[in-house]
Amino acid sequence: MAYEQKYFALAVASLCPDLEPMVDYEICDDGSGPRITIWRSNRAQPTLMQIQAVDTAPLAGALSSPPPISDRQFFQQLAVLGLITKDEALAAVRTGAVPAALQQLIDGLPADHQFAAEMLVSGATTFDRRHPLTNAIGAAYGWTSDQMDTLFRSAAEL
């Protein structure tokens, strides 16, 4: 479990997901560390101990992940990188045809995961960096997490 003070607001939000910052509560940092300065909710205000008990690593990771990209961006970026052909990228977007390189990856997955993976690759209109299949694609190419993030960030610019 890892709490990071810089994610204080995320920790509060995760404890009180139904409350609105700046409406139901306000957080201030006067240099001695963040704290809740105004609490307008009828529910009990979380204590500092409860806030510090929140594992902020997954929350921070979600913020740092690249945003989802469209199927067009995903397949176009794979073509830009030379991982699939331009014709395969066009066919994937037009008809949902799975490019040969991705089909090879899918075929290499455990049998009970292949159908779901093929449905995702052929039918998704968006691709999420945090999806487990994304990590499987990256692992198949021997890429690091940072390289996968770069793929998604580059694709988002197309």
Spell out the blueprint of helices and strands.
Blueprint: H1 8-15, E1 25-29, E2 34-39, H2 48-52, H3 57-64, E3 69-70, H4 71-80, H5 86-95, H6 100-107, H7 111-123, E4 126-127, H8 132-140, H9 145-156
Antiparallel strand pairs: 1-2, 3-4
Helix pairs in contact: 4-5, 4-9, 6-7
What does this molecule look like?
- This protein has 158 residues and is mostly helical.
- It has 2 domains: 5-64, 2-Layer Sandwich (Phenylalanyl-tRNA Synthetase, Chain B, domain 1); 69-156, no CATH class.
- Helix content is 53%, strand content 9%.
- The chain contains 9 helices and 4 strands; from the N terminus they run H-E-E-H-H-E-H-H-H-H-E-H-H.
- The protein has helices at 8-15, 48-52, 57-64, 71-80, 86-95, 100-107, 111-123, 132-140, 145-156; strands at residues 25-29, 34-39, 69-70, 126-127.
- A two-stranded antiparallel ribbon has the order 1-2.
- Strand 1 (25-29) and strand 2 form a beta hairpin.
- The radius of gyration is 21 Å and the shape is elongated.
Overall pLDDT confidence: 88
Helix proportion range: 40-55%
Broad shape: elongated
Radius of gyration: 21 Å
Strand content: 5-15%
Helical run tally: 9
Distance between the termini: 37 Å
Structural class: mainly alpha
SSE ordering:
HEEHHEHHHHEHH
Count of folded domains: 2
Sum up the structure in keywords:
158 residues, mainly alpha, Phenylalanyl-tRNA Synthetase, Chain B, domain 1, two-stranded antiparallel sheet, two-stranded antiparallel ribbon, 9 helices, 4 strands
